[in-house]
Amino acid sequence: MATALALSLSACGSDEPEAAEGEPELSSAGQLTVCTDAPYKPFEYPDDSSPTGYTGFDMEIVDAIAAGMDLEVVVKDAGFDGLQSGASLAAGQCDMVASAMTITEEREENLDFSEPYYDSKQSLLAAAGGDVTSIDDLDGRKVGVQQGTTGAQYAKDNVPEGAELVSFPSDAELYAALNSGGVAAVLQDLPVNLDHTDDGAYEIVEEYDTDESYGFAVKEEGSEDLLEAINENLQAIRDSGEYDTIYEKYFSDS
């Protein structure tokens, strides 16, 4: 597998890691610190059996990339607004963001993205057999979205004028609102909504092709070598077939 990384401490004896020329600068020597907004199943969610405490499609791809860089993964849970705005990276909370984040021109003003690693759609989740069968049925109703997401923007642009958008910080609160009747439907990424159809109480009533692709994000300045290593190792796991194995594990029924 591609690039193995080794960080060295400075000659003056400082505890702060100092990257050798051409190697990524990391917040902690030997560790790739990753921010994510969990739970967002199937991409990232808590798992006590995982060394990082998290698993999911994103988390397994990151683990494979980090293995190619000889780095230990450390995961930090953080709010999506701070991740998509670049605030978390700018504050030094982590080295990269892996949070099912769509690459958009607006986000690219504050972030640099890896090569795309997953193509997604938007979707509308509502009660199975209920009276919400399309986005047009939301007139006069409340629809739940996650704040700062492309799903929230799609809903803003496409729901009927009489619909009320209700924003929540994460999928956990979104789904709870749907269960309690606080919203009539949830508009967000298709794979995440699909995960809520398993018990048969809810169904995907519409899908929307939005030409979205997810990317891993790093800060705009000072992470050029890290971004190059991420892309190099992402390509390496595609070439080896490891990416396909992880993809089939999470999306074989999608």
TrEMBL record:
<protein>
    <submittedName>
        <fullName>Polar amino acid transport system substrate-binding protein</fullName>
    </submittedName>
</protein>
<dbReference type="InterPro" id="IPR001320">
    <property type="entry name" value="Iontro_rcpt_C"/>
</dbReference>
<feature type="domain" description="Solute-binding protein family 3/N-terminal">
    <location>
        <begin position="31"/>
        <end position="254"/>
    </location>
</feature>
<dbReference type="InterPro" id="IPR001638">
    <property type="entry name" value="Solute-binding_3/MltF_N"/>
</dbReference>
<feature type="compositionally biased region" description="Acidic residues">
    <location>
        <begin position="15"/>
        <end position="24"/>
    </location>
</feature>
<dbReference type="GO" id="GO:0016020">
    <property type="term" value="C:membrane"/>
</dbReference>
<dbReference type="GO" id="GO:0015276">
    <property type="term" value="F:ligand-gated monoatomic ion channel activity"/>
</dbReference>
<dbReference type="Pfam" id="PF00497">
    <property type="entry name" value="SBP_bac_3"/>
</dbReference>
<keyword id="KW-0732">Signal</keyword>
<feature type="region of interest" description="Disordered">
    <location>
        <begin position="1"/>
        <end position="31"/>
    </location>
</feature>
<feature type="domain" description="Ionotropic glutamate receptor C-terminal">
    <location>
        <begin position="31"/>
        <end position="253"/>
    </location>
</feature>
